[in-house]
Amino acid sequence: MGTGMANRKTWLQQKLFGQGPVIAFLWGMLLITAITAVFSGRLELGFVAVATLALAMAPALLASKLEIVLPVPFVAAITLFVFSSLFLGEAFDFYNRFWWWDKVLHGVSAIGFGMIGFLFAFMLFEGDRYAAPPAALSLIAFCVAITVGSLWEVFEYLMDTFFGMNMQKTGLDDTMEDIMVNAVGATIGSLSGYYYLKGHRFGLTQLIGEFVRLNRQLYRKSKEQLRKINKD
Q: Quick check: is 37 in a domain?
């Protein structure tokens, strides 16, 4: 009994506080907001806070189940994005108060999906740097980010059409602006993968390198090739 409780305590400490102080602060603030909102009768705010907390914690919990290690900056970026999108955007109406809020989030998400697309494509080749040229992997990453962004625009259209929402704001103009912002973000994210394979280590490429380093079992051929290069 005592050992089980100790193990659960250790697990919670790793999940809640092992991700960094900023993440722990945001998660804690969302939890406090949800509890306060429920007791004060502001059920809508409480629901948004709980949903935001659940979505923010989901990647870390899912990664743990899949035995994937997420670098702290990855978790921080996801948490800040979900917090900015759902909590600030919806609960505090930042989408209507600041015209640029939606565009910034679209661009940031596209960068993230570009990097995720690259890491996934690189993983399919088990980190083999010679199985596919950097330009090809970068193109795959770009396509992944653009696809996700386009599907989101379809989702917004369906929400507006069938549920009377106003996610598209000004309609076609808003959709096209979002797609162009997505394209810019996808380009940045996919190019980070390209420059990583070219051996450059700065900014986003360092973050990709950190993910590969922490999940070497998924990129074993990359590790083997680097070992051979170092021997030569």
A: no
Task: Specify the pTM.
Answer: 0.82
Alpha helices in the chain (DSSP H): 2-12, 21-39, 43-65, 72-82, 94-97, 101-124, 134-163, 172-197, 204-214, 220-231
Of 190, 206, 183, the closest CA to residue 107 belongs to 183
| Per-range mean pLDDT, top range of 10-14, 31-35, 40-44, 62-66 | 31-35
Q: What is the tally of structural domains in the chain? A: 1
Is the per-residue pLDDT at 128 higher than 90? no
- Residue labelled with tokens 């907390």: 53
Tokens of 111: 């960068």
Longest dimension (CA), the chain: 68
CA 129, CA 33: separation in Å to the nearest integer?
47
DSSP element (H, E) containing 37: helix 21-39
Residue 55 lies in a domain: no
- Token couple for 44: 């809508």
53 is a domain residue: no
